[in-house]
Amino acid sequence: MRIKDITDFLEQFAPLSYQESYDNSGLLVGDANAEISGIAITLDVTEQVIDEAIHNGDNLIIAHHPLIFKGLKSLTGKHWVERCVIKALKHDIALYAIHTNLDNVHLGVNRKIAEKLSLKNIRILSPKSEILSKLVTFVPHENAQQVLDALYNAGAGQIGQYDHCSFQTEGTGTFRPGEGSSPHIGNHHVDETVSEKRIELIFPSHLKHRIVSALHNSHPYEEVAYYLSTLSNTNQEVGSGIVGDLTSPMDTSEFLRHLKQTMRTDCVRHTPICKEKVSKVALCGGAGSFLLTKAIGAGADVFITGDFKYHDFFEADNRIVVADIGHFESEQFTKDLLYDIISEKFTNIALRLSEVQTNPINYL
């Protein structure tokens, strides 16, 4: 099995196009066509993680956080990131990052946290827009279903929990085959009229090439008429954060103690307890202060995240309880998420969780 087999699968689960503009997810170091000897999963890549991979014979490290985040201008070993890259290259170890694209998918990092807290009625807190496209095409009646099936199989026609979604109208198509054409219907230089279906489907924009290829391969016409347009609609399955409900309301202080225990953190920094009970919970793994307004707007009683700055705590303004559990602590179960995703698909590879503690923050 090649490294590319794993990374292609991960990018189907969490497409690279879903990462934030500042991010650097994907294969950062290594040969995608190299055969896999073993895979290590970690939250962060450090020199100790690479040493562990060398010891265990792993040649692919899958990390949540990208090792190369800012541009590298040299590889002299003067900085720890440079030393990691040099060591990985020297020992033929590939480094792959799956960061904000895994944050932004519905079954990703935030869903894992929500499951740990047993939330129900889960939905994306801040859905992304302009990542959906619409295809409009025209097909003879007798070929409509075969084209639809091909487009469905390519990933078109899914809206939330519904698939095979399309809109179809009846119409008449006209054309005149020119010299050198090979028409499916009609004759050269003769006007032709055909009863056709106008078919409209929505699809994730990153599947554009796959959708267009499926259309051409299934359509009977030599020249296929179609339109593509980008939609401003939000995609409810993709975006930042999650909001959901507790199974039953909890006293806020009790909930914070439950949160501390469940998320295995030594410290929960929180704003004044302005809510007597917690029913609705918003959360975002990592640094999520940018979602505070969204959490308040969603009617959440508590907003769980990490990396809140001092002045940002004031913005809660007694409208919500902010609970900062730490960046590492909020994302620590991402390793388990990745392990489950990969092991369910690939049962014949050496896959393990790194045992190196990569949290750079310690508490007294």
Automatic annotation (TrEMBL):
Spans traversing the lipid bilayer: none
Pfam families tied to this protein: DUF34_NIF3
Alphabetic keyword roster: Metal-binding
Signal peptide coordinates: none
InterPro entries: DUF34/NIF3 (IPR002678), DUF34/NIF3_bac (IPR017221), DUF34/NIF3_sf (IPR036069), N-reg_PII/ATP_PRibTrfase_C (IPR015867)
Gene3D superfamilies, A to Z: 3.30.70.120, NIF3 (NGG1p interacting factor 3)-like (3.40.1390.30)
Source organism superkingdom: Bacteria
Record's keyword annotation contains Nucleus: no
Family membership: Belongs to the GTP cyclohydrolase I type 2/NIF3 family.
Name used for this protein in its record: GTP cyclohydrolase 1 type 2 homolog
